[in-house]
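User: I'm putting together a small comparison set for a docking exercise, and I want a reference complex before I start. The sequence is below, and the ligand is adenosine-5'-diphosphate. Could you produce the 3D structure with the ligand included, as structure tokens?
Assistant: Of course. I'll restate your input first, then give the structure tokens for the complex.
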Amino acid sequence: MPPEARFTTTSSTSPTSKAPGAARSGSASDTDIQYVKGVGPGLGALLKSRGLTTVRDLLYFFPRAYEDRTRILKVTELKEGQSATVALMVRSSRQLRLRTGRTLLEVRAGDESGTLSLKWFHAPRGMESRFVPGAQIIVTGTPKRFLGSFEIIHPEISWGQSAATENVGRVVPIYTELEGISSRVLRKILWEALEKYSATLGEDLPQTLLQAHGLPRLAEAVRTIHFPPDTQVQDLIDFKAPAHRRLIYEEFLKFEFLVLKQRLKMQRERAPLFGPNGGRDAAAELEKLLPFDLTAGQKSAIAEILGDLGQPHPMNRLIQGDVGSGKTAVAFLTAGCVLAEGGQAALMAPTEILAEQHYRNATLLFGGRLNVALLTGKTPGAERTKLLARLAAGEPLLLIGTHALLEAPVEFRNLDYILIDEQHRFGVEQRRTLRHKGTRTDAAAGATQFPHTLVLTATPIPRTLALTAYGDLAISSIRELPPGRTPVVTQVVRERAARARAYERIREELRKGHQAYFIYPLVNDSEAEGFTQLKSAVAESERLQREVFPEFRVGLLHGQQRPDEKAAIMDRYKRRELDILVSTTVVEVGVDVPNATVMVIEHSERFGLSQLHQLRGRVGRGAKQSYCFLFAAERVGENTQARLEVLEETNDGFRIAEADLEIRGPGEFLGTRQSGGLPFKLANLVRDQKWLLQARDDATWLLKSDPDLQLPEHRPLKTFYEREGSLQFDRLKTS
Ligand code: ADP
Ligand code: MG
């Protein structure tokens, strides 16, 4: 009998043909994992140390991928690099000791069509003795060509002609290997756990929604995600099988309902009301003082903010726009409205350099009209005391500062408007602290009043993140740059020769009296544990000065310097006493030197696209043509090359953000906003966009029709939130 036929017959007893879940017992969520048949105390302890404590945890440990093992191939049908399953007979085996000291177990095995090698480094003791000539094995792995035939390193083996049914002859789930526990072991205990406990998984979602979208119930989805039918191979591999969709939809729906509810709750809170006309007039007055016309994007952002300030509920708004799109003007003008009505405003920036720059611009532009003050760690004691007294007395003013604003003695009488620049540099706690300073009880109304909040970001947020991680915020976007900017010419530089040409190009710019930035990922070499080939800012500034640009003046700026050192270097650069500024990413925020026309980023492959785009935004601030060179290792992979090329192709931060999300995931955008990221196990913001939008719609409907989840069909969902919802989602709240 040919091997293929043999294994098709065994699949008639495979798990799919007999639906597990018939037996009744304790529920999955309160049964200790060690009571699953085949687990026991030893494996139980190991699983627990990996975070799988209950049977439910085990059932929710979803496969990370699937392999199509429905077909057993012949050795001659194997293709290099393509995972496959073959049925073989052992011919010989031997244990070798390599020169490196490693041991190697090599097994020769084959079918009637050919032979191949199976190899294990550091094979467990005694493994060799199982491979007796003549033994039948089922082998799954990825073949590689080696000395004219195929070899498979560390294949998965099933013993016997009709190997264990959960491992072959079917679409097989692949799990993230927990240390010391293989996919095979997981499959085996999952099979047992599903059989006994999957029926005890409670259904949290209303039947109406499941039916409307044709989605399976939870128990069925969990069963088939682990032991899927053979008919859905491609859907499974793409995470688009009904079971996947159901679980993904559930994650999104539970999340969106909570985010929207949180948003609604904030919208019901009270906030000081600013007469829309008074506000508009003040903004118009300030606008007249600007040396330029506002762009359409700036205008509509201002209108949206003033609209919010004209409501008796707290604004919670994010304004996103590329570096240089003019968000600061929007911040100042709207703050002016609040001041005109007798309120106080606070603008917090992540660095002293940036806070001072804002302060200088505000006084320069609006001099006598806007009452501004600066508070940083550098503010002298006497000045500080005076300033604190003015704040406490309720003087209408815009206070610009750093984290110093968060300190306890800084108290406002009526802080009505909070502005946070470069919001991703701050944590939830810090924003909360500032918001708290503006929260007060209005004795007359007998209610608590909250301040209005505006957060600013130069990293555009992809749409799906706007609905999830930022779902509690209203968003204004400035999509255009002020006129007169020349797009930065960007080039990825990898080879030596190209690098030399880039240095020449830079030299030409410097000779014209223009300036350049060189950005490195590290401060000094000692930081580079394990990455000794990485160039550090300190060492490279010396090399650039000595070897590459001896005729120009090179300065060094990094985050480990004292604030006054940093300020001194920055000042020299601004005054053109330095031609080249070597730095780490501290210049990312808020350095405005229009004479700089060159941005060089070393090891650009180590940065996210949005971050590179932000760094690039430091040049091209005037009418002069600017250049950005993305230096990358000569041997970066194709993916990295393609990724960096996105920056060569476009200057549109919104497009770059979408590409970044696709390639690197949401972590890039969340920063310190929340340490753990989004609570999705299966859902992927790029792949599953459609379901996110669906869940969003459904959550909106649910919130309208039954906000407190009182209806019987919504009770299970309510119970879910009571049990673990708040824990899981709390860190997402922005205030
Ligand atoms: P960002 O959005 O990166 O914070 P800024 O507010 O710092 O941008 O603005 C960048 C520069 O552009 C500043 O020098 C600012 O004065 C200038 N600017 C802002 N809006 C306009 C405009 N509408 N027209 C011309 N220049 C503008
Ligand atoms: Mg800015």
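The domain at 71-169 is CATH 2.40.50.140 (OB fold (Dihydrolipoamide Acetyltransferase, E2P)). The longest strand covers residues 84-97.
User: Thanks, that's exactly what I needed.
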